[in-house]
Specification:
alpha+beta; six-stranded mixed sheet; three-stranded antiparallel sheet; globular
Length: 198
């Protein structure tokens, strides 16, 4: 274990697992958004889903590499299209919802002219969630529901271990893809899922 890691993560030689109390999955508790904003920084990811605080351990390298590939491909698609009806592509951007939920999809595309204060207000046009071992089925389903109920056009839920992506649309459809994905939101642009999951 590197000296850098030992000096920055409490728990000395036992690393992050001891730091979070040897819990490897989602840590949940009820929190209001005002309190959520004041929580101290710590390793990992935090979201607020319907008043429930979701705390996850730091994403692993493979997870981040997949997110980065998707981010770069979406930027390329929007750049080629020159279509300004979509906003910007983001990695780990925060979105605040009317019910106090605050979600941070792995990758997202905003709507052009989407309202923003300290955070984007309302859902992105596209939210991409990459499922990690620490995510629960309820948590992922809850996120999809919040995005779509608040006006997202599409939500992509990517399962790297199963090598498949589920595309959820605002009209209630969900389709499984394992080789290619053509998104109507992106003008029919095709994403090679095999390459993105490599």
């Amino acid at each position: 274990m590197s000296l850098w890691y030992q000096t920055r993560v409490p728990g000395t030689r036992f690393g992050y697992a001891r730091y979070v109390g040897a819990v490897s999955g989602t840590i949940r508790r009820h929190v209001q958004f005002a309190k959520f904003e004041t929580l101290p920084d710590r390793p990992g990811k935090r979201e607020l889903l319907g008043g429930q605080l979701i705390e996850l351990p730091p994403a692993r390298q493979k997870h981040n590499q997949i997110a980065e590939r998707i981010y770069l491909r979406l930027r390329e698609i929007l750049s080629e299209a020159g279509n300004r009806s979509r906003g910007e592509v983001h990695h780990e951007m925060g979105y605040l919802f009317e019910d106090g939920s605050w979600l941070q999809p792995d990758v997202s595309i905003t709507d052009a002219g989407q309202l923003v204060e300290d955070y984007y207000l309302g859902p992105p046009a596209l939210a991409v969630e990459i499922v990690a071992e620490s995510n629960t089925a309820d948590e992922i389903a809850g996120k999809v529901e919040v995005y779509l109920a608040n006006g997202a056009s599409e939500v992509w839920v990517l399962y790297p271990n199963r090598r498949q992506l589920w595309l959820h649309t605002h009209d209630g459809h969900a389709d499984k893809h394992s080789v290619r994905l053509a998104s109507s939101l992106l003008g029919g642009a095709v994403l090679d899922l095999v390459q993105l999951l490599a």
